[in-house]
């Protein structure tokens, strides 16, 4: 069996070769370095590159499984994968701790007014009269209730927050006090002080949030987007912030990336931007390789994946 990686995995390469001595592993820095004869012979592909498109897959006739080393799989040609019976796994959950830490960095930066305090520091103002609100008893609403939202909701509960989750059917999920169908979201926003998007990009979630969604949120709502920038049009977010439909936003992902230097978001004083870094962590490759290793053991045994298998029909 030939397993090809279109990225270098550092010490994880030796780990895989030691754990699976009968497997032929080949690693390349980028898809552009992949020899066509290797592409035609590979059984398993490790990648997260947009170059893995329909044409690429057509040139890999023996490919049986793509191990995607990222969470979002929306760039892949699902119809081609389905037609050829290629299995797909992702790295969902790998980013849970890092994303959760960023989320609460944003929330506490806001609630504890750290930017305002720093501005006073710059003016040499020693203000002991400042009193900040607590996150305890605040209602935090998550778009999505998967592995990452569950980890974030767990931390929220430890801090004494009330957790609300929106998913496809309203089914219960760990660490959520309440769950509702995402189709009912506009009736649920009134419960929330903080709204957090952690949904993947699919046909159903692309531009899910509209101007009307922001209009029916509480005016004091803090909006945080750590999922996908295509959850809403940039213009709708800008208008919601300008019109004070919501109080403030922290955004790590954008409709178009990289964010254009002329974006109106840069002109607002009630939004704070990070450049799609909330999931970046030094251990991501190790954690993704943990998932890959568990799946490879099963794949060698019976051809099935046991962890993070993507439903091709649903897109996640």
From TrEMBL:
Example GO molecular function: glyoxylate reductase (NADPH) activity
Record bears the keyword Oxidoreductase: yes
CDD domains for the chain: PGDH_1 (cd12155)
E.C. no: 1.1.1.79
Domain of life per record: Bacteria
Domain D-isomer specific 2-hydroxyacid dehydrogenase catalytic: 18-304
Domain D-isomer specific 2-hydroxyacid dehydrogenase NAD-binding positions: 105-278
UniProt-listed Pfam families: 2-Hacid_dh, 2-Hacid_dh_C
Alphabetized UniProt keyword annotations: NAD, Oxidoreductase
Gene3D superfamilies cross-referenced by the UniProt entry: NAD(P)-binding Rossmann-like Domain
Family: Belongs to the D-isomer specific 2-hydroxyacid dehydrogenase family.
Protein name: Phosphoglycerate dehydrogenase
Organism expressing this protein natively: Staphylococcus intermedius NCTC 11048
Gene name as annotated: ghrB_1
């Amino acid at each position: 069996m030939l397993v090809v990686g279109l990225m270098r995995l550092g010490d994880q390469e030796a780990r895989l070769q030691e754990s699976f001595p009968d497997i032929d592993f080949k690693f390349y820095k980028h898809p552009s370095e992949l020899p066509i004869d290797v592409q035609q012979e590979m059984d398993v592909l490790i990648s997260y590159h947009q170059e893995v498109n329909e044409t690429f897959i057509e040139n890999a006739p023996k490919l049986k499984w793509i191990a995607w080393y990222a969470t979002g799989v929306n760039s892949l040609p699902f119809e081609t994968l389905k037609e050829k019976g290629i299995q797909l796994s992702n790295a969902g959950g790998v980013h849970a701790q890092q994303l959760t830490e960023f989320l609460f960095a944003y929330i506490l930066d806001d609630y504890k007014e750290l930017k305002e305090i720093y501005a006073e520091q710059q003016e040499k103002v020693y203000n002991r009269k400042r009193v900040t609100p607590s996150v305890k008893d605040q209602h935090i609403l998550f778009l999505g209730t998967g592995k990452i939202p569950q980890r974030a909701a767990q931390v929220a509960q430890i801090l004494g927050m009330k957790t609300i989750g929106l998913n496809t059917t309203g089914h219960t999920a760990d660490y959520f006090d309440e769950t509702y169908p995402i189709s009912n979201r506009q009736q649920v926003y009134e419960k929330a002080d903080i709204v957090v998007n952690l949904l993947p990009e699919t046909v159903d979630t692309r531009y899910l949030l509209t101007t009307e969604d922001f209009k029916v949120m509480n005016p004091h709502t803090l909006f945080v987007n750590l999922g996908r920038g295509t959850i809403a049009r940039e213009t709708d977010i800008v208008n919601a912030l300008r019109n004070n439909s919501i109080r403030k936003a922290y955004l790590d992902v954008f409709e178009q990336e990289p964010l254009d230097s002329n974006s109106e978001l840069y002109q607002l004083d009630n939004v704070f931007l990070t450049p799609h870094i909330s999931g970046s962590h030094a251990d991501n490759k190790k954690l993704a390789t943990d998932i890959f290793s568990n799946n490879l053991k099963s794949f060698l045994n019976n051809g099935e994946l046991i962890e993070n298998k993507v439903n091709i029909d649903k897109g996640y």
